[in-house]
Hints:
Layout: H1 6-13, E1 17-20, E2 32-33, E3 39-40, H2 45-56, E4 60-64, H3 70-79, E5 83-85, H4 91-102, E6 109-113, H5 119-122, E7 127-130, H6 136-141, E8 144-145, H7 154-165, H8 169-174
Parallel strand pairs: 1-4, 1-6, 4-5, 6-7, 7-8
Antiparallel strand pairs: 2-3
Helix pairs in contact: 2-7
Amino acid sequence: MKHLTEQLRKKLQLISLLILDVDGTLTDGRIIVNGDGAECKEFDVRDGHGIKLLIKAGIKVMLLTGRTSKAVDHRARELGISEVCQGVLDKGSFLDKLMNEKKIAPASIAYMGDDIVDIPAFKKVGFSVAVADACDDAKMSADYVSRNAGGRGAVREICEMILKEQDKWKAVAARYGLP
């Protein structure tokens, strides 16, 4: 596991946008398809709460996935995520276009993924994260490897990490009566 060094802490302080892969990152990677072809995905409620906390603290969140699913649109609406990009197979080129069109500096973007399709995105952003159960190539390519698995708290872990490194966690915690 890669550790959070002082250099990585400094990178986290610059993040204003967290981009999340969906299958294997926001979910555990399993896709349930019923007899009618309808797709179901499982999402972790703590990951969702972490996303909401991040958004409330002024950090944008975007979903970026190679697949297309109504379940992803539904979950994004529940969490208040307005930027959802599905069916994106070349994530590196997508990020180039996004940063150019929106004038976003690479250093201000964090990206979380789990597979080799995410590696081109890892190389474009200021802080890249592979979930604990990511493929080995993704883990070796990322700046940081989460302690938690995809769909099992990895996103929450990174949301808290960003909030803490930006000194926003105390304000979040105070809302819940924590010191």
